[in-house]
User: What shape does this take?
Amino acid sequence: MDFAPRPPRMAETLFPRVLLVDDDPDLVRLIQHVLKAQGYGPARQVGTGREALESLDDIDIVLLDQQLPDTSGLDVLEAIRTRPAAPAVVLVTGHGNESLVASALRRGADDYLAKDSALTELLPQILERVRRTRELKKALAAAEEELVRAERLAAVGEMTVTLHHEINNPLMAAFADVELLLADPGAPPETLRQGLEDIRQALRRIRDIVQRIGKLREVRSKEYLRGVRMVDLERMEREVSVVQRGTALLHVPDEDLSRIISLLLRAAGFRVERCQSVGELQQSATRLGVTVVVIAGGASSPGAHPLGGFIDPGNRDYLLVALVSGEDAAAVSAGADHVVQLPFDPGTFTAEIVRQLTPASPADIPFPAT
Assistant: This one.
């Protein structure tokens, strides 16, 4: 029996941990053989849906048979999807169950595998695809968490500078007045009254600042010192945000990927609009003010359009960015100005886009030949 070529030997921990849910001993033996040939450790194997739900600890991928003695694979799939940090699920079906496959994918299955002659060839490919997708989602979740953390730290830093600047001055003035009054308790009544009035004014100013901070609904910042920013308490009214780099249109079906790209682009100064279809993206891209169009390409799938169906109009002012998981030549040929390989590095994603949008300095522009 021929199997797909075995990949280079890797540390065992780099391979996903597999749970095989099937009660057919012949199929179990075949799948275990394929996994071993690909360098995986032996899959944990159970024969019922109940056992499957009890065996999910530390599992990365579940190979789930649709026909089980006590329930259906779809029911087990729905139960798995309710678990926190649920593993990926590949539904194993009989040949010709297209409607069942469609239903499984709608319910959250990551992929499917038919019980036919191509099983031994397709199983390694499907496992690798699912593994890469899970790793990408983990990387995106980590990047999103880091972005939120960085934004929170920046906000805390700006508020600290604000409090120091706005409150420190009246606080120090009040302290000075108190020290003067304590140092000269026999001062004339007018001097005492003026000192107390100054203290009251300083305390009122501090009170007003605290109240204004408590009423903030939108945080705007301004430069305090070179390289240091503070919250601008003078601009309390809600304003339309000034877009620094124009509008970025985004059509990426994967929700996690779309969310993290939106965060990255907003942090870089773009106003982000997510388009639900390629047609909506094509129409929206004709508007003034659009500077970037980001689309998930399909070059890695046989017969798929390299720009996911988006047609480059040619005469345009925006940067066309394609996200691809395979070769980038097709996306470039279809008109992409910038190709990003998935999974990408969140730290450089927007930097490369901004660099290509930034006009060259006069020193970088060659003089025409005379």
About this structure: The CA atoms of residues 363 and 369 lie 16 Å apart.
